[in-house]
Amino acid sequence: MTTILSAPDCATMTEVRAGVDALDRELMALLARRFAYMDAAARIKPERGHVRDEGRKAEVITNARAEAERLGLPGTAIADLWERLVEASIAYELAAFDRRR
């Protein structure tokens, strides 16, 4: 088993890549949790037309950008990622809604 080092402790690209791969696995687990909430939303919302909420979408992206900037990350790049994440979540929720009906 490979020990995962913190980024400042990495001395080789092998160590960096091991850290990135470990984080990617953690991100997938978090995304699975996020998409489970999309399943819940599809179960709770009474109509398919309630799935897309542009106001909420804007709020989520604004929050992501602000948190990214607070952490010293590139806000625009994170906002772009969240745009894609939210759109993927909406598509997933629509499909989940359709499967339930």
UniProtKB/TrEMBL annotation:
Signal peptide: none
EC number: 5.4.99.5
A Pfam family annotated for this UniProt entry: CM_2
Alphabetical list of InterPro entries matching this protein: Chorismate_II_sf, Chorismate_mutase-related, CM_dom_sf, CM_II_prokaryot, Isochorismate_pyruvate-lyase
Protein keywords: Isomerase
Residues of the Chorismate mutase domain: 7-97
Protein's UniProt keywords contain Isomerase: yes
The protein, known as: chorismate mutase
Biological source species: Sphingomonas insulae
